[in-house]
Amino acid sequence: MVTISLCMIVKNEEDVIGRCLESVKDLVDEIIIVDTGSTDQTKKIVSSFTKKIYDFKWIDDFAKARNFSFKKATKEYILWLDADDIFLEEDRKKLGQLKKNLDPSVDSVSMFYNLTMDENGKPVMRLRRNRLVKRSKGFKWIGPVHEYLEVGGHIITSDAAVTHASIHHDSDRNLRIYENRLKQGEKFSPRDLYYFANELKDHQQYKRAVEYYEKFLSDGKGWIEDNLAACGKLADCYHELSNQEKMIYSVLRSFKYESPRPEFCCRLAYTFFEKMDYHSAIYWYKQAAAIGVLASSWGMQNQAYADWIPHIQLCVCYDRLGDYKLSQYHNEQAGSIRPENPQYLHNKRYLEQVFALQNKKESHNEQE
Q1: Which of 147, 113, 150 is nearest to 128 (CA)?
Q2: What is the pTM of this model?
C-alpha cells in the first residue's frame, strides 16, 4: 500500500475546512496545511487534524503557494484539495481501494471533479483533474491564478471523484489579480487570456470579455477544451449583448475544433425553439441526446446538455406540435434521469390531464 500526503493551501476557511479534512483524514498518512493569512479560526480547527501547519505570505500567486505545500510533503504520493472540497462516502471507498491497489509505477492519477449536483445528488457539471501525483517526480504548479499541475509519465484515470461543496468565496479576488498583472504590463499566455475573459464574463463585463475571448481564439494556441468552452462563453456574452447573429456564429464556430457536442446542439436547438421552428429544434435536441456524455473528455462538461435538457425540451416541442405521445415519452426519459425535478413532475401532471381529456372526448363520441 502506498503512502499519501494531503497538501492544501487555505485562508479563512473556518466554515468548510473541518468538513473537508474529516472526509479524508483516515485515508491519508500526512496532512500538510499552508495558511496564506487566515484571521479566523481556520488554524485552530486544522490543529485538531495535524500539527504540520505552515505560514506562507500571500503574493497573489496560487502556484507558488501550492508548490510550497508540495515541498513540505514526505510521503510517496501527494493528494491535493481545496478547503471547500470533500470526498463523499462512495468516493472515500474508491480512494481507499485506489490507495490499497495503486501500482507504484504510476506517476499521476486523475479523478473526476464534481462542480455541481442535481437534486438527487447526481453530478451535473464535472471535469477531470490530476489529483494524486508521485512526490518523487517533482511535478510543479504553473500560473499565478487558475493554476494547473503540469504532469507527465504514467498517468491513469480513476472513477473516484472529489466534490466541490462551496459555501462562499472571494468573487473579486481572481479578477483583481489579473487586473494588477495587466497594469504591470505583463503579457498574458493563451491560458491567461481565456481565464481573464472568464472572470470578466462572470463580472458581467461582456464587451471586455468578448475582446479577450477573441484574442484567445485568434492566437490559435489554446487547449482544444478551452477553445470549445470559449465559443460557448462567447455565445453567452453575445446573448447578453443582444447580438443574435454573433451568438449563433459563436456556436457554429465550435464546429471548427471538433464535431458538434451536446451543449452546442442544445444552443442551436434553442435558437430555433425561440422562433417556434419546433421541427428544427427537435432535430438538434435529438442530436444532443444521441451524442451523450463524452466519457473521455478532460474538459468541463455539463452533463445535463447530453440527457436532461434534450429530453425535457423535446417534451415541450412535441407538445407544441400536438404530438402528446412523443411529448410524454421524452418527459419520462427526463424523469428517469431526475425523477424529483419539479419541471418533470409538472409536465407529467399536465400530460395526464391531456390524455384524460382525450379519453373523455373519445368516450363521449362513441356514445353518440
Answers
A1: 113
A2: 0.86
Cα 287 to the center of its chain, rounded Å: 22
Residue 2 contacts residue 29 (beta carbons within 8 Å): no
Cα–Cα dist 171/71, whole Å: 29
Domains of the chain: 4-164 (3.90.550.10), 172-258 (1.25.40.10), 261-368 (1.25.40.10)
Q: What burial class does residue 94 get, using C-beta atoms within 10 Å of its C-beta: 0-12 exposed, 13-18 middle, 19+ buried? A: middle
Tell me the pLDDT tens digit for each residue of 298-346.
Answer: 878 899 999 999 999 999 999 999 999 999 999 999 999 999 999 999 9
User: From CA 311, how far away is CA 302, in angstroms rounded?
Assistant: 15
Concatenating the DSSP letter of every residue in 159-177 gives: EEEEEE--S---TTHHHHH
Q: 3-state DSSP call for residue 126?
A: strand
Full 3-state SS string of 98-109: HHHHCCCCCCEE
Residues 156/101, Cβ–Cβ less than 8 Å:
no
Which distant-in-sequence residues (6+ apart) come within 8 Å of 89 by Cβ? none
Q: What's at 212, amino acid-wise?
A: Y
| Whether the Cβ atoms of residue 40 and residue 70 lie closer than 8 Å to each other | no
Determine the straight-line distance between the first and last CA of the chain, rounded to whole angstroms. Answer: 79
